[in-house]
Design goal:
mainly beta, 5-stranded mixed sheet, about 140 residues, 9 strands
């Protein structure tokens, strides 16, 4: 019996998707790598969230026992914001990890309004440090 590498990878991706927890009411789910959110010049195609809204981020490594999970929202330096934020990134601290998904609440900071941020999950555990890239979101 022969197995293809592509078949094994596809099966692994389906398995991880099946393990991910369902979204919380009103939660925006973000995929890994953020490829669906590569934006044209005008910013179209970038999902919008409100301050205080829940985000769900697929990240299988976050479910490892003893993992230290941090969600960082880095202000996109390439966006056309006229008013600089005064900070480069925000650590989202209201979070919960369930079955391959990190549920986090967008910080309710007025200075985050009308900004595009790059969302990343950093997971530190006995296996090392891993990163899950959730892509870009626009905070309304």
């Amino acid at each position: 019996m022969r197995f293809s590498v592509a078949g094994l990878l596809a099966g692994g991706a389906l398995f991880c998707a099946a393990l991910a927890s369902p979204p919380i009411s009103g939660e925006l789910m973000l995929p890994l790598a953020g490829k669906a959110y590569v934006a044209p010049d005008e910013g179209a195609g970038i999902p919008s969230v409100a301050r205080g809204q829940a985000l769900g981020i697929a990240c299988a490594e976050a479910s490892r026992a003893g993992a230290d999970v941090r969600v960082v929202m880095q202000v996109d330096a390439d966006s056309d914001d006229d008013d600089p934020a005064g900070f480069g990134a925000v650590l989202a601290t209201d979070q919960k990890v369930e079955r391959g998904t990190v549920h986090v609440r967008v910080p309710n900071m007025p200075d985050l309004s009308h900004r595009t941020v790059n969302v990343k999950v950093f997971v530190m555990d006995s296996h090392g440090t891993h990163t899950c890239d959730a892509g870009r979101v626009r905070i309304g």
